[in-house]
């Protein structure tokens, strides 16, 4: 199973490009579904819903809305779910979310939720939604112990999550360690899907990994440094690395691949073709 992630475009021009070029290009690769992220602090709430609604209505494919607890009361969240339901969106990626820019720690809304497992239970109780949650092969950066974080991931499944989608990673051993621990030690039986981000440039990936706490393995760093000033060469390396990673993941029984497309087609399409999936 292959799925693609988009983010709400920041300008009207970017929105046109997304709807007229990126989504049709990605759809040609026949994903099972597409998801759209929910901006920090709920800043893209309306836009996220609009993008997933349009994907569902105009392209007739399963569209999944991300939803976070940041800045939202239970009533806000219930309203969002009702609007999603009305737009025939039946799948939610339920997240706690990151603190808004400038805040060090996550502060729950007084009438909202502190952790994603509470949101999962809330969405499931609303009825009619399948729910995905985030998983962290290297542990979530706020958690001092990855095994404790993995237990909390299992708690999200116990709260009703139907699938786990992982944070990006560049060492498959981290993914397998996470998946096998959840499956064998924590008895998690739902699919665990690998989050794949084909690297575009050294600057971009160093920033992303800095933000989300994923490590860049030394052999990958060597290649990034080598291609630091040559974006085309770095992108080609990103495609080659993602292809090799995905081949290994597939060989070892991964339940699915979720591509962080960054609203672009080229790298995802090349990896899919290399894998014989497009
Ligand atoms: C696939 C994927 C999609 C994402 N999409 C978005 C998006 O659209 N918008 C966005 O803003 N962010 C998104 N994120 C980022 C995510 O919001 C952040 O990583 C956030 O910091 C944690 O969210 P969570 O749902 O994993 O939180 P949680 O599962 O609640 O975990 C957050 C932290 O709290 C700890 N914790 C959990 N339960 C407990 C407990 N009971 N007691 C004590 N500690 C606990 C965990 O160990 C972890 O350190 C995404 C991440 C992934 C992997």
Features:
binds flavin-adenine dinucleotide, 278 residues, alpha/beta
In round numbers, the mean pLDDT is: 96
CATH domain class name: Alpha Beta
Shape: globular
Content of β-strand: 15-25%
What order do the SSEs take from the amino end to the carboxyl end, as H and E? EHEHEHEHEHEHEHHHEH
Kindly identify the CATH topology. TIM Barrel
Q: Give the biggest sheet.
A: 8 strands, parallel, barrel
**Class inferred from helices and paired strands:** alpha/beta
Q: What do you see in this structure?
A:
By secondary structure, this protein is an alpha/beta fold. The chain is built from ten helices and eight strands. The protein has helices at residues 12-27, 45-59, 74-86, 116-126, 146-158, 172-185, 202-212, 218-226, 231-251, 266-274; strands spanning 2-6, 33-36, 62-68, 91-95, 130-135, 163-168, 192-196, 257-260. The model has no long low-confidence stretch (mean pLDDT 96). The structure holds flavin-adenine dinucleotide. Flavin-adenine dinucleotide is lined by residues 37-38, 40, 66, 68, 93, 95-98, 115-117, 134, 140, 142-143, 149, 152, 156, 165, 167, 195.
């Amino acid at each position: 199973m292959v799925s693609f992630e988009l983010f709400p475009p920041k300008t009207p021009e970017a929105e046109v490009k997304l709807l007229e070029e990126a989504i049709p290009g990605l759809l040609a690769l026949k994903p099972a579904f597409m998801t759209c992220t929910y901006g920090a602090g709920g800043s893209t709430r309306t836009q996220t819903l609009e993008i997933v609604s349009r994907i569902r209505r105009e392209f007739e494919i399963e569209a999944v809305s991300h939803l976070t607890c940041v800045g939202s009361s239970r009533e806000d969240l219930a309203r969002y779910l009702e609007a999603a339901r009305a737009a025939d969106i039946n799948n939610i990626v339920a997240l706690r979310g990151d603190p808004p820019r400038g805040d060090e720690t996550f502060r729950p809304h007084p009438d909202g939720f502190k952790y994603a497992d509470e949101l999962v239970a809330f969405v499931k109780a609303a009825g009619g939604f399948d729910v995905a949650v985030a998983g962290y092969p290297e542990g979530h950066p706020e958690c001092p112990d990855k095994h404790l974080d993995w237990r909390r991931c299992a708690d999200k499944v116990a709260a009703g999550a139907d699938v786990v989608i992982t944070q990006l990673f560049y060492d498959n051993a981290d993914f397998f360690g996470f998946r096998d621990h959840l499956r064998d030690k924590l008895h998690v039986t739902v699919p665990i899907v690998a989050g794949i981000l084909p690297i575009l440039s050294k600057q971009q990936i160093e920033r992303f990994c800095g933000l989300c706490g994923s490590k860049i393995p030394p052999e990958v760093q060597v290649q990034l440094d080598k291609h630091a000033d040559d974006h085309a060469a770095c992108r080609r390396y990103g495609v080659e690395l993602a292809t090799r990673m995905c081949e290994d993941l597939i060989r070892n029984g991964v339940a699915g691949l979720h591509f962080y497309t960054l609203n672009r087609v080229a790298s995802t399409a090349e990896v899919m073709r290399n894998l014989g999936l497009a």
